[in-house]
Amino acid sequence: MGFQTIKFYQTGTYTVGNRLLLPDQRSVQAGESRSNSINSGHRACQGCGEALGARYAIDAAMAESDNRLIAVNATGCLEVFSTPYPESSWQVPWIHSVFGNAPAVATGIAAAMKVKGKKDVRVVAQGGDGGTTDIGFGCLSGMFERNDDVLYICYDNEAYMNTGVQRSSATPPAARTATTMPVGPEPGNPFGQGKNLPEIAMAHGIPYVATATVADLRDLEYKVKKAMKMHGARYIHLFVPCPLGWGTASSDTIRIARLAKESGLFPVFEAEHGEITGVLKIRRKVGVEEYLMPQKRFAHLFGSHSHPEMVIRIQEIADRNIRKYGLLDEEAA
Amino acid sequence: MLKQIEGSKAVAEAVSLCRPEVICAYPISPQTHIVEALGEMVKSGRLAPCEYINVESEFAAMSVSIGASAAGARAYTATASQGLLFMTEAVYNASGLGLPIVMTVANRAIGAPINIWNDHSDSLSQRDSGWMQLFAENNQEAVDLHIQAFRLAEELSMPIMVCMDGYILTHAFERVDIPVQEQVDAYLPSFEPRQVLDPSEPISIGAMVGPEAFMEVKYLAHAKQLQAIERIPQLASEFRNIFGRDSGGLVRTYRADDAETMVVAMGSVIGTIKDTVDEMRDEGHRIGVLTIVSYRPFPLEQVRGALLHCRRFLVLEKSLAVGMGGILATDVRMAVTGAGLKGYTAIAGLGGRPIFKSQLHQLFRQAEKDELPPVTFLDLDRDAVNRQLERERQTRRSGPVAENMLHDKGIVSAKFG
User: Fold this and answer.
1) What is the count of structural domains for chain B?
2) ipTM of the complex
3) Residues B29 and B44 both lie in one domain
């Protein structure tokens, strides 16, 4: 992939201080002209991956659209923590309608902009995994199929966090949620297929689909900016750890997101018109235990009543991802 | 221009003359011909600029309309029956946000059992959704009400359903005077939204409101509808000045002077009722008609005023408040509280059951003699119902109710042959 060209060799990381870069290489978030689309003072939990991801994504979209952006929000954490009247954090025109219709509301706005000849105004719709993979799935698929001029961003924290951590179709197998408790012979969420929404989006043949995590924020900015350069239906699936729902330390959000990617459980890639065009390779492969163990939602897999067979099955998922998406360089393998 | 035209096509012409900017289309009988006709107009370039969007559900149809309206575009859609119920969450949202969307409801029954024919159960189920509801008596009025609806909706920044009876009106070919563009342009100014999503002036729409202001926001919707009670007659009067005919308004009376018995109803059945009343008047019966055009807002004072002089009223409605009786009748009784009138309810025409003049003659005569029970079910086959109840007493596994009824009644279409 062409977006991660700079490696900071002294520390062996890709985390590059902006002062070492030319101005045009610096991140949107590092710039003085960043729009602060979601302003400070909102009510997200400490260490919220969604708040971080949304801030980077919407500011990048603002930068790319010359600040001519309208945002739509499904019901969910992001909507609730950012807005109670009259304390809206949003510095962009923003609308929330109901839980399951953000893609359709965005379609309506895009249609209004088109009919009024406002070609410069762009539309972003956003929702959590519940609003995207479950209740908003029909509207999302419709928006994809019509190739409406909307960028949809799913902030995936793998459960209904706003209502108190209930299972969604994006909840991983074995995870504890309030509706898949770690009891009985197969504790936690049943093993199933879940919904691989990036793949489903690709199956619609839309111009652009990408996945990203909050561990690679420059990658996120790159993908949002790339998506905003295109027209038609575009989809970004962003992996955002939830300290409250996952039982992780607030200071661990970035680390957990990185482990999801480095284990292969969350493949980071981009695709155009249904074909994968780039993959963010695993840099230092880790076993899934390293990702699972710091999370209380998987605590029942380890310790005195451990379920090693479940860990093995989760590892198999990661291994399949690694093979399927080619996540390992030959040398690293 | 006078045309012999299908009701749906006529409404499509009227909507087109209102210069909608975003139209959401999803097929459901009996509304489909309207959006089909509009689709052809947009595709041919006759209606421009306009975005015509084939959505994937009625829920999306209303949601796209919400987005379009919030972004300042004049938005229109049409639906019926199950479609209206499927979009219900977004229907409430549109009125809660104060978005002046106009929607045609081609009134149709609600299943189960699935039934595509006309009654008023669908839009009446949205009675408290915050939408205004105007009922057309014929296709001319359906055309005219759409033009008035866009004007009223945008003035008040509240959405309106224009209700027309499925099939009876939507699929009927009648003589309709289709207005010309100059007339509609003179009546309907361009849409100036009260709130709009605009990057030059960012606002948040649809955020959470707690107990401290929720009641006031909801009351405001009520206050808007009370304003509509003032504005609807004025708009009908302005309409007459430009288009040269009476259409709309809150209520209408027919042969009501000196009437001792008043029949109250909405929609196309008014035609059959008027014919029956004409015949009864010829025979010397003192009977008249009150047509409710505006179901929401419900014009309590106007209904009271129209009924106070009579001795009794009979509300004939194509809807049923299961477990209670009439839906419209409840509102009418509210309007005449304390007036000492006798009131009767007749539930009729559910699921498209024909309403014949002969039945109305009998019903109205019974009402005149005060021989009606409080609630009458017109043309109800009580024997069939009793036989089913008996089957259910006899056996636990009595099977699907609707199938049993059909077996019991034989070939239903033969009955109306």
Assistant:
1) 3
2) 0.95
3) yes
Taking an 8 Å cut-off on Cβ atoms, the answer to whether B70 and A114 are in contact is no
Nearest Cα of chain A lies from the Cα of B111 at a distance, in angstroms, of 23
B122 and B8 belong to one structural domain: yes
Per-residue pLDDT reduced to its tens digit, A252-306? 999 999 999 999 999 999 999 999 999 999 999 999 999 999 999 999 999 988 9
Confidence at residue A333, expressed as pLDDT on a 0 to 100 scale: 46
Same structural domain for residues B159 and B21? yes
Same domain, B209 and B89: yes
Tens digit of each residue's pLDDT (9 = 90 or more) over B181-210: 999 999 999 999 999 999 999 999 999 999
Query: Interhelix angle for B58-70 vs A102-115, to 10°?
Result: 50
Facing residue for A70 by CB, picked from B56, B71, B75: B71
Lowest mean pLDDT among A16-30, A91-105, B107-121: A16-30
Q: Which domain holds residue B344?
A: 251-377
Residue B235, min C-alpha distance to chain A (Å): 28
- The continuous run of DSSP H or E covering B359 comes out as helix B357-368
**Least CB-CB distance to B67: which of A83, A88, A104?**
A104
Q: What is the DSSP string of B43-54?
A: HHTSS-S-EEEE
**Which residues between 77 and 96 in chain A have a beta carbon less than 8 angstroms from any beta carbon of chain B?**
79-80, 83-85, 88, 90-96
Q: What fold does the segment set A28-325 form as a domain? A: Rossmann fold (3.40.50)
Torsion sign over Cα B17, B22, B28, B32: positive
Whether residue B398 sits in one domain with residue B355: no
Residues B173 and B239 in one domain: yes
Answer for the pair B310, B288: CB distance below 8 angstroms, yes or no: yes
